[in-house]
């Protein structure tokens, strides 16, 4: 048997080639939006645009995987690996962490001792960066117990920047008031882009960015500000980028980072998952970063 295996949800936004490279078993987060199913489009965000054109004001819903979904992946990985580490979406955004712990209770006592569950207090690229950190620690021959403990300490060192093109989706989802949404739109028209981030496990406002002509530029400028001390000290930075059907914008952000940052690793660029995407809406973008 191999030493340590991993389980996450598909909400990490990690491309399939990395999932296979790191031998990660992924649990699907549930997503329901009946009105979207008949819309043309290759992904959720293209369908959301079509639904908007029709004037349909319905809204999608996400829910955590069932305990059985986690149990299936746990048993799959425990058959292949001596120990397994599960890294879940923030317990403040989803019930996945609870479902994972329920699933653990269905395992045989001896197998429960081989499984470690870590609440990432994040989602999307930030959760993916935590999983990649776990892989690094495995390659350093750390034990599963040591890795789980180090991941808990590393969580506050992972940062994210999220910008919406329009807050109507997050307003429709009841996450911000109409008054707040109107204020945000007014600021956007004035060239001021509100920044969101995952802080202490929840999605929250984190600041304003002025003078940015578009979302990729705004994220780049904020990333440049947030990492300047790390860059100055010669530390390596890892970045994960996820977008809501704006591959050109995401590629431009990637190129800006690579052309202007020293010692940076873009671990992936991929489309955003439905957990955050259903709130973010088309053309939103997120960048997560940490010290490598």
Write a compact overview of the structure shown:
The chain contains 13 helices and 12 strands. It is of the alpha/beta class and 292 residues long.
Could you please describe the fold and organization of this structure?
By secondary structure, this protein is an alpha/beta fold. The chain has 2 domains: 2-29 and 64-155, Dihydroxyacetone kinase, domain 1 (Rossmann fold), CATH 3.40.50; 159-291, Hypothetical Protein Tm841, Chain: A,domain 3 (2-Layer Sandwich), CATH 3.30.1180.10. It is 44% helix and 26% strand. It contains 13 helices and 12 strands. Helix 4 packs across helix 5. The longest helix is centred in the C-terminal third of the chain and has 18 residues, at 215-232.
């Amino acid at each position: 048997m191999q030493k340590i295996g991993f389980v996450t949800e598909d909400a990490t936004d990690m491309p399939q080639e990395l999932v296979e490279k790191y031998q990660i078993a992924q649990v699907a987060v549930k997503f329901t939006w009946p009105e979207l199913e008949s819309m043309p489009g290759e992904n959720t965000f293209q369908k959301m645009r079509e639904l908007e054109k029709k004037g349909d004001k319905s809204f999608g819903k996400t829910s955590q995987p069932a305990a059985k979904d986690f149990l299936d992946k746990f048993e799959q990985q425990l058959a292949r690996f001596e120990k397994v580490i599960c890294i879940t979406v923030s317990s403040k955004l989803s019930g996945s962490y609870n479902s994972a712990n329920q699933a653990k209770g269905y395992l045989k006592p001896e197998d429960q001792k081989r499984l470690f569950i870590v609440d990432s207090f994040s989602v999307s690229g930030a959760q993916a960066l935590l999983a990649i950190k776990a892989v690094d620690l495995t390659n350093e021959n750390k034990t599963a117990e040591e890795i789980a403990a180090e991941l808990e300490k590393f969580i506050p060192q992972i940062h994210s920047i999220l910008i919406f093109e329009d807050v109507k989706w997050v307003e429709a989802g009841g996450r911000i008031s109409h008054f707040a949404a109107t204020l945000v739109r007014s600021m956007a028209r004035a060239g001021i882009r509100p920044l969101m981030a995952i802080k202490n496990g929840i999605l929250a406002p984190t600041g304003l960015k002025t003078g940015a002509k578009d979302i990729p530029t705004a994220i780049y400028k904020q990333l440049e500000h947030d990492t300047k001390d790390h860059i100055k000290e010669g530390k390596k930075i890892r970045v994960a980028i996820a977008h809501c059907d704006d591959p050109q914008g995401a590629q431009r952000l990637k190129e800006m980072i690579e052309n202007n940052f020293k010692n940076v690793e873009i671990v992936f660029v991929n489309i955003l998952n439905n957990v955050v995407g259903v709130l973010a809406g088309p053309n939103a973008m997120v960048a997560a970063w940490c010290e490598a």
